[in-house]
């Protein structure tokens, strides 16, 4: 049996969708969660392929970069879509999510660096909120056209997992009012009600991010 | 025969690697190049799936997002690597490139917005240059271990195309002195000497980005 070890921080972030693929596929994995500030990461960083986590170890063979890990697992266990065209749209949605997160990260960074309140406010109003609105608009358009309720095709793909887990984070942090986004909330419910995910979500560590 | 139409601006940027896959595969495509500021893009923008280009049309079926397009074509024509593990590393390198470009874009944006010289300088020194150095270090480590001289496995993949085209841009814009980066320059030469690419590079429109 392949030994999988997924190393990330003690949060959902860029690893949760991969964890969920393991759960959906019913495949065992080591879920290594590094605590910020206890020194473990400082020691590990230089040993990772790109100086970053998540890293997936597959019998010792290491794969860096969250989307690469996710796509590797999704392809192996059948969560990439059913045709090359579906695969392309799954990829496109995940890339769009990453572009959105990049804009949002500027707001997180301004906060972390304790920038003046007006600078934080400016980044929020001029960058983060418009990026979120544009991203939500794209998701809503996709869901309006979806016959299955999934983002792509008739089955759950890793695009659904990535998007939904991030919706949880946006809601937990005051950037999503689910009453205002019924389609996005319906997607969240659909994904979180998949029996194997429902069980995982009820028992996993609850984290802010 | 499938009718491919690749729409992008009149630059290499996020479309060139896909153009190169068509050339390497010997597949015809419509190479639509939009001129900035002539009004075409303003009109087209709202008709694209995500309000962005590149967009690839495959017999009218549209795929947005540069990496999704690239992976779709690369998978179809055999430039994704030979095993699932090679595919994962190709993906990881392209994602790492995108993270690097995102950091670099902050510098481009500061320039475009005509920020004060000291602010531009700060972004260059504190963000762009360190991001480039970290990225070059990763590429050098990968190339040191490569037996073939390609980034992944024994054949050209879309990771080589993406990385090399960006090296051209970095050099053209004063961010790469090829004498200081012999391994990166050897990769560039190796890729640009692939006969079908050599021919394309000699005849394609020469652009700064």
From TrEMBL, chains A, B:
Domain GST C-terminal, first and last residues per copy: 83-209
Provide this UniProt record's keywords sorted from A to Z: Transferase
Q: Which reaction does it catalyse?
A: RX + glutathione = an S-substituted glutathione + a halide anion + H(+)
Question: Where would one find the signal peptide in this protein?
Answer: none
Which EC number(s) does UniProt give?
2.5.1.18
Main EC class the enzyme belongs to: transferase
Q: Which family does it belong to?
A: Belongs to the GST superfamily. Sigma family.
Q: What is this protein called?
A: glutathione transferase
Name the source organism: Caenorhabditis angaria
């Amino acid at each position: 049996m392949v030994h999988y070890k997924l190393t990330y921080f003690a949060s959902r972030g860029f690893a949760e969708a991969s964890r969920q693929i393991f759960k959906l596929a019913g495949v065992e994995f080591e879920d290594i969660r590094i605590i910020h500030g206890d020194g473990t990461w400082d020691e590990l960083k230089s040993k990772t392929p790109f100086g970053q986590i998540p890293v997936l170890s597959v019998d010792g063979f290491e794969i860096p970069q969250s989307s690469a890990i996710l796509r590797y697992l999704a392809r192996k266990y059948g969560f990439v879509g059913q045709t090359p065209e579906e695969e392309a749209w799954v990829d496109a949605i995940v890339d769009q999510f990453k572009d959105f997160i990049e804009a949002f990260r500027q707001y997180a960074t301004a906060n972390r660096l304790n920038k003046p309140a007006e600078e934080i406010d400016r980044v929020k109003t001029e960058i983060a909120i418009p990026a979120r609105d544009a991203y939500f608009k794209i998701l809503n358009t996709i869901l309006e056209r979806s016959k299955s309720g999934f983002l792509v095709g008739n089955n759950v793909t890793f695009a659904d997992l990535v998007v939904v887990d991030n919706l949880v984070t946006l809601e937990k942090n005051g950037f999503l009012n689910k009453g205002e986004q019924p389609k996005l909330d319906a997607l969240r419910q659909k994904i979180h009600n998949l029996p194997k995910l429902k069980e995982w979500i009820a028992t996993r560590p609850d984290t802010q991010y």
